[in-house]
TrEMBL record:
Example GO molecular function: ATP binding
Lineage: Bacteria, Bacillati, Chloroflexota, Ktedonobacteria, Ktedonobacterales
Organism: Ktedonobacter robiniae
Composition-biased stretches (Low complexity): 9-30
CDD domains the UniProt entry points to: ABC_DR_subfamily_A
Keyword Transport: yes
Listed SMART domains: AAA
Name assigned to this protein: ABC transporter ATP-binding protein
Pfam families reported in the protein's UniProt record: ABC_tran
Region listing for Disordered, in residue ranges: 1-30
Membrane-spanning residues: none
This protein's UniProt keywords: ATP-binding, Nucleotide-binding, Transport
Amino acid sequence: MNTFPEQNPPQTQDTPFPQPAAAQAYPQAYSSTQTGQSAEQYAVLTQDLLQTFGQKVAVNHLNLAVRPGEFFGFLGPNGAGKSTTIKMMVGLLRPTSGSVWVGGVDVWKDPLSARALMGVLPEHLNLYERLTGREFILFAGHMYGVPDADVTRRTEDLLRVLDLANDADKMIVDYSVGMRKKVALAAAILHRPQVLFLDEPFEGIDPVSSRVIRDILHELTQRGTTIFFSSHIMEVVERLCTRVGIINQGVLVAEGTLQELRERASGDDKDASLEDVFLNVIGVRNENHNLSWLD
Ligand SMILES: Nc1ncnc2c1ncn2[C@@H]1O[C@H](COP(=O)(O)OP(=O)(O)OP(=O)(O)O)[C@@H](O)[C@H]1O
């Protein structure tokens, strides 16, 4: 009996890249989730995840397996389905069908246990605008049941390293885009989550804070946290990620280490950048992009 698909469905678009392969990379994940045996071996596991909005298939039978401690970069062009996938993974958007496990917990069957294991920086930040930055981070720590003394100490540490200490007593409504993102990030990591989901964490962040955040994320993975993040910034993904998945039109079109993706997507060009690989995988061709009316 094998009801689980071996691969993601065929791509809707003609690309030079072979079929992706969470199911090939981690076949045991997919052979035994049917019997409920192996989800706990994975930090994040999706099985046949589908999301439709009317006629639009935003995420198309996604099968993805992320191992504990991996730094997984999730790439795709605008509208590819990254945020929709992350929302289904973290319990913000119920899948049309399919399953998601985080830390072995079925997110849609046991959402409270799953949420306790994760930290989330969503695409659209929904912050308590009338709290100060410090109050918001303290509040998040208490919500996750972190002991009082730890909440206080970690909050002050995070405010300091994220360069928010001078604005800690200002209300969030008066924060800049980057400051809001940093305070949301602090709230997402204070309880030392097992799995951290970040949707575009570097958007609107200055280079100094960007470096600090990269260092914090690296440190978290060194200490066992799994990170699943989406980004359009190829250099950051290239520098940080141990594995990368590329989604296009809701379909996972490539997955692997950077080296594997380079070899598969760019043939002999072993020095191809992630940007080259990305453009190759999603099938971008060199076309004339001139605007004739600018002449
Ligand atoms: N609530 C919704 N209702 C209808 N369509 C939606 C909804 N949310 C997302 N979509 C559609 O689903 C597709 C995937 O959107 P999604 O936000 O997941 O893309 P993305 O990869 O995160 O894009 P970006 O990089 O631009 O943030 C898009 O076509 C989008 O218009």
